[in-house]
Amino acid sequence: MRRFRRIDTWVNNAATSIYGTFEQTSIEEFERIIQVDLMGMVHGTKAILPYFIGQHEGTIINVGSVVSERAVPLQSAYSAAKHGVKGFTDALRVELMREHPNIRLTLIKPASINTPFFVHARSKLGVKPAPLPPVYDPHLVAEAILFAAEHPRRDITVGGMGKLIDLTQRLSPSFIDVFMLATGFRMQQTKQPDDQIDTLYSPSGSTASARGEWGKQANSISPATKLDYYPTFGRTLTAVVLSGTAVFMLHRISKARR
What we know:
The protein is an alpha/beta fold. 48% of the residues lie in helices and 15% in strands. It contains eight helices and ten strands.
């Protein structure tokens, strides 16, 4: 503010996690996740909002997660915090629409991203945690944040798997329950012993890096993410695909009955 006299975009992006069952997680650890992942967003928004109100415009971008829509096992605290981020963002958005319509609010929901998040997380599994596949490169999230800064959107989900999980959760939450029961425990664990080093209460002190250890598996493109960039086109394309699928299935059923 001292240098440029205004702020155009504010990004809240704070997260840490614990991998383990709720039974294994202490109250203190659970509260720490809430303080960082949810209250970090709250404090950041409280800090910037007076400036945006004073200049009558601005864009707030909150980085949530796919688990803002669908919780995953072994991450109860993280799932609760990211659900809280979505609830906080949705409520604040409507308040701003009424009182300060030129202050925009976007929720970014990444799927599994190749960052050091997994190395830095606390593990109660006896091994290092792993991202649920497929994994995406972090530049896709950076691009989504930049797009939202220039073209305000309500929500942007990064990663095709995130879009699929979101859609399936809306259609059949019980199916995702069964899917998570079958895959969610095993696929979030590596075979590497846990080194007992994490950043739950303090930074690691190591050289910062945007990317983690999953570069070979990381997807560098995600066409499905673009659907949220242009939601009208995305909804139209989804309707066409679903209609075409329905027509094809009805044709197959009709043919089978002949």
